[in-house]
Design brief:
This protein has 12 helices and 9 strands. The longest helix has 14 residues. Helix content is 31%, strand content 14%. The chain is of the alpha/beta class. The chain starts with 5 loop residues before the first strand and ends in a 33-residue tail after the last helix. The structure holds iron/sulfur cluster (SF4) (2 copies) and FE3-S4 cluster (F3S). One iron/sulfur cluster binds next to helix 1 and helix 5.
Protein backbone atom coordinates (compact mmCIF):
# COMPACT_ATOMS: atom_id res chain seq x y z
CA UNK A 1 0.00 0.00 0.00
CA UNK A 2 2.95 2.31 0.56
CA UNK A 3 4.75 1.58 -2.70
CA UNK A 4 3.95 3.00 -6.12
CA UNK A 5 2.46 0.37 -8.37
CA UNK A 6 4.92 -1.41 -10.65
CA UNK A 7 4.50 -0.36 -14.30
CA UNK A 8 3.96 -3.35 -16.58
CA UNK A 9 3.87 -3.40 -20.36
CA UNK A 10 2.28 -6.65 -21.61
CA UNK A 11 2.94 -7.38 -25.27
CA UNK A 12 1.24 -9.94 -27.47
CA UNK A 13 3.09 -11.57 -30.36
CA UNK A 14 2.23 -14.80 -32.15
CA UNK A 15 -0.09 -16.44 -29.63
CA UNK A 16 -3.65 -17.58 -28.95
CA UNK A 17 -4.39 -15.32 -25.91
CA UNK A 18 -5.16 -18.27 -23.62
CA UNK A 19 -2.30 -17.23 -21.34
CA UNK A 20 -4.34 -14.06 -20.71
CA UNK A 21 -7.45 -16.21 -20.34
CA UNK A 22 -5.66 -18.23 -17.69
CA UNK A 23 -4.30 -15.14 -15.91
CA UNK A 24 -7.70 -13.50 -15.45
CA UNK A 25 -8.95 -16.64 -13.69
CA UNK A 26 -6.41 -16.47 -10.87
CA UNK A 27 -8.05 -16.83 -7.48
CA UNK A 28 -5.06 -16.46 -5.10
CA UNK A 29 -4.49 -13.58 -5.52
CA UNK A 30 -7.46 -12.69 -7.67
CA UNK A 31 -6.40 -11.20 -10.99
CA UNK A 32 -8.44 -8.04 -10.36
CA UNK A 33 -6.35 -7.35 -7.26
CA UNK A 34 -3.14 -7.70 -9.23
CA UNK A 35 -4.31 -5.48 -12.08
CA UNK A 36 -6.11 -2.84 -10.00
CA UNK A 37 -4.04 -2.67 -6.81
CA UNK A 38 -0.63 -4.28 -7.24
CA UNK A 39 0.68 -3.42 -10.70
CA UNK A 40 -0.01 -0.64 -13.11
CA UNK A 41 -0.90 -2.51 -16.29
CA UNK A 42 -0.20 0.38 -18.61
CA UNK A 43 -0.24 -1.44 -21.91
CA UNK A 44 -1.88 -4.73 -22.83
CA UNK A 45 -3.39 -5.31 -26.28
CA UNK A 46 -6.23 -7.39 -24.85
CA UNK A 47 -7.00 -5.92 -21.41
CA UNK A 48 -6.55 -2.19 -22.07
CA UNK A 49 -9.54 0.09 -22.46
CA UNK A 50 -7.78 2.51 -24.80
CA UNK A 51 -6.92 1.74 -28.42
CA UNK A 52 -4.91 2.88 -31.41
CA UNK A 53 -2.47 5.81 -31.24
CA UNK A 54 -3.48 6.53 -27.65
CA UNK A 55 -2.04 3.24 -26.33
CA UNK A 56 1.06 3.35 -28.49
CA UNK A 57 1.75 6.74 -26.90
CA UNK A 58 1.29 5.20 -23.44
CA UNK A 59 3.86 2.48 -24.23
CA UNK A 60 6.33 5.12 -25.35
CA UNK A 61 5.64 7.26 -22.27
CA UNK A 62 6.25 4.37 -19.87
CA UNK A 63 9.53 3.53 -21.64
CA UNK A 64 10.56 7.18 -21.45
CA UNK A 65 9.47 7.95 -17.86
CA UNK A 66 10.38 4.67 -16.13
CA UNK A 67 13.66 3.52 -17.66
CA UNK A 68 14.91 0.41 -15.85
CA UNK A 69 11.80 0.43 -13.63
CA UNK A 70 9.08 -1.33 -15.61
CA UNK A 71 8.48 -5.00 -16.23
CA UNK A 72 7.96 -6.24 -19.75
CA UNK A 73 5.57 -9.20 -19.89
CA UNK A 74 5.41 -11.03 -23.20
CA UNK A 75 2.71 -13.41 -24.38
CA UNK A 76 3.62 -15.12 -27.62
CA UNK A 77 6.78 -15.15 -29.64
CA UNK A 78 8.24 -13.22 -32.55
CA UNK A 79 8.42 -14.36 -36.15
CA UNK A 80 11.86 -13.50 -37.53
CA UNK A 81 11.60 -14.68 -41.14
CA UNK A 82 11.30 -12.05 -43.88
CA UNK A 83 12.08 -9.25 -41.46
CA UNK A 84 9.41 -10.33 -38.99
CA UNK A 85 6.47 -9.28 -41.18
CA UNK A 86 4.25 -12.17 -40.03
CA UNK A 87 3.22 -10.28 -36.89
CA UNK A 88 2.84 -6.52 -36.94
CA UNK A 89 1.20 -4.13 -34.48
CA UNK A 90 0.58 -0.46 -35.22
CA UNK A 91 2.69 -0.64 -38.36
CA UNK A 92 5.75 -2.12 -36.66
CA UNK A 93 6.93 -5.70 -36.60
CA UNK A 94 6.47 -7.43 -33.28
CA UNK A 95 10.19 -8.23 -33.34
CA UNK A 96 10.98 -4.51 -33.46
CA UNK A 97 8.45 -3.70 -30.70
CA UNK A 98 9.83 -6.46 -28.50
CA UNK A 99 13.44 -5.35 -28.87
CA UNK A 100 12.56 -1.69 -28.43
CA UNK A 101 10.43 -2.27 -25.30
CA UNK A 102 12.92 -4.67 -23.71
CA UNK A 103 15.71 -2.06 -23.82
CA UNK A 104 14.50 -0.11 -20.76
CA UNK A 105 12.83 -2.99 -18.87
CA UNK A 106 14.13 -4.16 -15.49
CA UNK A 107 13.17 -7.73 -16.41
CA UNK A 108 11.19 -9.63 -19.00
CA UNK A 109 8.55 -12.23 -18.14
CA UNK A 110 7.89 -14.74 -20.92
CA UNK A 111 4.34 -15.98 -20.35
CA UNK A 112 3.54 -19.45 -21.58
CA UNK A 113 5.24 -21.90 -23.88
CA UNK A 114 4.98 -19.60 -26.92
CA UNK A 115 7.16 -16.95 -25.30
CA UNK A 116 9.32 -19.39 -23.29
CA UNK A 117 10.15 -22.01 -25.84
CA UNK A 118 8.31 -21.43 -29.12
CA UNK A 119 5.31 -23.76 -28.77
CA UNK A 120 3.24 -24.62 -31.85
CA UNK A 121 4.38 -21.68 -33.99
CA UNK A 122 7.98 -22.83 -33.74
CA UNK A 123 7.13 -26.51 -34.35
CA UNK A 124 8.63 -27.99 -37.50
CA UNK A 125 8.75 -26.61 -40.15
CA UNK A 126 8.36 -23.27 -38.31
CA UNK A 127 7.24 -21.37 -41.43
CA UNK A 128 7.55 -17.89 -39.88
CA UNK A 129 10.89 -18.42 -38.13
CA UNK A 130 9.21 -17.94 -34.73
CA UNK A 131 11.67 -17.57 -31.86
CA UNK A 132 11.08 -17.50 -28.10
CA UNK A 133 11.91 -14.35 -26.14
CA UNK A 134 15.14 -15.57 -24.52
CA UNK A 135 16.65 -16.18 -27.98
CA UNK A 136 15.97 -12.57 -28.95
CA UNK A 137 16.60 -10.65 -25.72
CA UNK A 138 20.03 -11.46 -24.34
CA UNK A 139 20.86 -8.47 -22.15
CA UNK A 140 17.97 -8.64 -19.64
CA UNK A 141 16.89 -11.24 -17.13
CA UNK A 142 14.16 -13.33 -18.79
CA UNK A 143 11.82 -15.31 -16.53
CA UNK A 144 10.30 -18.22 -18.42
CA UNK A 145 6.84 -19.24 -17.23
CA UNK A 146 6.04 -22.13 -19.58
CA UNK A 147 2.80 -24.06 -19.98
CA UNK A 148 0.14 -23.88 -22.63
CA UNK A 149 -1.13 -21.91 -20.87
CA UNK A 150 0.66 -21.55 -17.51
CA UNK A 151 -1.44 -22.08 -14.38
CA UNK A 152 -3.16 -18.83 -13.38
CA UNK A 153 -1.77 -18.85 -9.82
CA UNK A 154 1.74 -19.50 -11.15
CA UNK A 155 1.45 -16.36 -13.30
CA UNK A 156 0.12 -14.15 -10.52
CA UNK A 157 2.52 -15.86 -8.09
CA UNK A 158 5.53 -14.72 -10.14
CA UNK A 159 4.27 -11.13 -10.13
CA UNK A 160 3.41 -11.27 -6.42
CA UNK A 161 6.90 -12.55 -5.60
CA UNK A 162 8.56 -9.68 -7.48
CA UNK A 163 6.30 -7.12 -5.79
CA UNK A 164 6.65 -8.60 -2.30
CA UNK A 165 10.39 -9.19 -2.20
CA UNK A 166 11.52 -6.56 -4.69
CA UNK A 167 13.67 -9.11 -6.49
CA UNK A 168 13.27 -11.73 -9.17
CA UNK A 169 12.49 -15.32 -8.17
CA UNK A 170 15.28 -17.91 -8.23
CA UNK A 171 15.42 -19.54 -11.65
CA UNK A 172 16.56 -22.96 -12.86
CA UNK A 173 18.89 -23.46 -15.83
CA UNK A 174 15.98 -23.03 -18.25
CA UNK A 175 15.06 -19.68 -16.70
CA UNK A 176 11.97 -21.06 -14.92
CA UNK A 177 11.09 -20.03 -11.33
CA UNK A 178 12.24 -22.97 -9.20
CA UNK A 179 9.34 -22.60 -6.79
CA UNK A 180 6.84 -23.52 -9.52
CA UNK A 181 8.90 -25.69 -11.88
CA UNK A 182 11.11 -27.61 -9.45
CA UNK A 183 9.13 -30.85 -9.60
CA UNK A 184 7.73 -33.14 -12.25
CA UNK A 185 4.01 -33.80 -12.66
CA UNK A 186 4.85 -37.43 -11.83
CA UNK A 187 6.36 -36.50 -8.43
CA UNK A 188 3.03 -35.36 -6.98
CA UNK A 189 0.57 -37.23 -9.21
CA UNK A 190 -2.25 -38.90 -7.28
CA UNK A 191 -2.03 -41.87 -9.72
CA UNK A 192 1.61 -42.46 -8.73
CA UNK A 193 0.71 -45.37 -6.44
CA UNK A 194 -0.70 -47.21 -9.48
CA UNK A 195 2.51 -46.52 -11.41
CA UNK A 196 4.56 -47.94 -8.55
CA UNK A 197 2.29 -50.99 -8.35
CA UNK A 198 2.49 -51.61 -12.11
CA UNK A 199 -1.23 -50.96 -12.64
CA UNK A 200 -1.65 -49.21 -16.00
CA UNK A 201 -4.47 -48.11 -18.28
CA UNK A 202 -3.95 -50.07 -21.52
CA UNK A 203 -6.85 -48.67 -23.55
CA UNK A 204 -9.22 -45.71 -23.02
CA UNK A 205 -12.18 -47.88 -22.06
CA UNK A 206 -10.57 -50.71 -20.10
CA UNK A 207 -11.05 -51.58 -16.46
CA UNK A 208 -7.87 -49.69 -15.48
CA UNK A 209 -9.25 -46.51 -17.07
CA UNK A 210 -12.46 -46.88 -15.08
CA UNK A 211 -10.47 -47.46 -11.88
CA UNK A 212 -8.20 -44.45 -12.47
CA UNK A 213 -4.91 -46.34 -12.89
CA UNK A 214 -1.68 -44.82 -14.21
CA UNK A 215 -1.73 -43.35 -17.74
CA UNK A 216 1.95 -43.95 -18.55
CA UNK A 217 1.21 -46.58 -21.20
CA UNK A 218 -1.26 -44.17 -22.81
CA UNK A 219 1.60 -41.75 -23.44
CA UNK A 220 1.55 -39.69 -20.22
CA UNK A 221 4.58 -37.37 -20.16
CA UNK A 222 4.24 -36.58 -16.47
CA UNK A 223 7.55 -38.32 -15.64
CA UNK A 224 9.52 -35.83 -17.77
CA UNK A 225 7.42 -32.67 -17.39
CA UNK A 226 8.21 -29.93 -14.89
CA UNK A 227 5.15 -27.94 -13.83
CA UNK A 228 2.84 -27.41 -10.84
CA UNK A 229 -0.33 -29.04 -12.19
CA UNK A 230 -0.34 -32.02 -9.82
CA UNK A 231 0.27 -29.66 -6.87
CA UNK A 232 -1.95 -26.60 -7.56
CA UNK A 233 -4.28 -28.09 -10.16
CA UNK A 234 -6.43 -25.88 -12.41
CA UNK A 235 -9.66 -23.90 -12.07
CA UNK A 236 -9.09 -22.99 -8.42
CA UNK A 237 -7.70 -26.41 -7.57
CA UNK A 238 -10.53 -28.42 -9.16
CA UNK A 239 -8.58 -30.76 -11.46
CA UNK A 240 -5.83 -31.12 -14.08
CA UNK A 241 -5.47 -33.17 -17.28
CA UNK A 242 -4.64 -36.43 -15.49
CA UNK A 243 -7.54 -35.87 -13.09
CA UNK A 244 -9.80 -35.77 -16.15
CA UNK A 245 -8.53 -39.13 -17.35
CA UNK A 246 -5.95 -37.99 -19.91
CA UNK A 247 -2.20 -38.17 -19.67
CA UNK A 248 -0.01 -35.08 -19.46
CA UNK A 249 1.14 -34.00 -22.95
CA UNK A 250 4.11 -32.08 -21.52
CA UNK A 251 2.76 -28.68 -22.52
CA UNK A 252 5.34 -26.83 -20.39
CA UNK A 253 8.34 -28.58 -21.94
CA UNK A 254 10.31 -27.19 -24.89
CA UNK A 255 9.49 -28.73 -28.28
CA UNK A 256 6.50 -30.63 -26.93
CA UNK A 257 4.83 -30.46 -30.36
CA UNK A 258 7.87 -32.00 -32.06
CA UNK A 259 8.62 -34.64 -29.45
CA UNK A 260 6.68 -37.37 -31.18
CA UNK A 261 2.91 -37.90 -31.36
CA UNK A 262 0.79 -37.37 -28.25
CA UNK A 263 -0.81 -40.77 -28.79
CA UNK A 264 1.61 -43.68 -29.01
CA UNK A 265 1.26 -47.21 -27.80
FE1 LIG B 1 -1.85 -19.84 -26.25
FE2 LIG B 1 -0.36 -21.80 -25.32
FE3 LIG B 1 0.78 -19.76 -26.51
FE4 LIG B 1 -0.30 -19.36 -24.13
S1 LIG B 1 1.45 -20.70 -24.58
S2 LIG B 1 -0.56 -18.03 -25.94
S3 LIG B 1 -2.03 -20.80 -24.22
S4 LIG B 1 -0.62 -21.25 -27.49
FE1 LIG C 1 3.14 -40.48 -13.58
FE2 LIG C 1 1.42 -39.92 -15.55
FE3 LIG C 1 1.17 -42.16 -14.17
FE4 LIG C 1 0.64 -39.80 -13.03
S1 LIG C 1 -0.52 -40.75 -14.71
S2 LIG C 1 1.80 -41.51 -12.13
S3 LIG C 1 2.21 -38.52 -14.00
S4 LIG C 1 2.89 -41.61 -15.52
FE1 LIG D 1 0.27 -29.27 -19.36
FE2 LIG D 1 0.82 -31.65 -18.36
FE3 LIG D 1 -0.02 -29.76 -16.80
S1 LIG D 1 -0.20 -31.22 -20.30
S2 LIG D 1 -1.42 -28.61 -18.10
S3 LIG D 1 1.91 -29.77 -17.94
S4 LIG D 1 -0.50 -31.91 -16.61
Amino acid sequence: ETKPRLPVIWLHGLECTCCSESFIRSSHPIAADIVLNMISLDYDDTLQAAAGHQVEEIRERIMREYPGRYVLAVEGNAPTKDGGIYCTVAGKTFLEILQETAKGAMAVIAWGSCASNGCVQAAKPNPTGAKPVHELIKDKPVINVPGCPPIAEVMTGVLTYILTFDRLPELDRFGRPKMFYGQRIHDKCYRRAFFDAGQFVESWDDEGARKGWCLYKMGCRGPMTYNSCSTFKWNNGVSFPIGSGHGCIGCSEANFWDNGPFYER
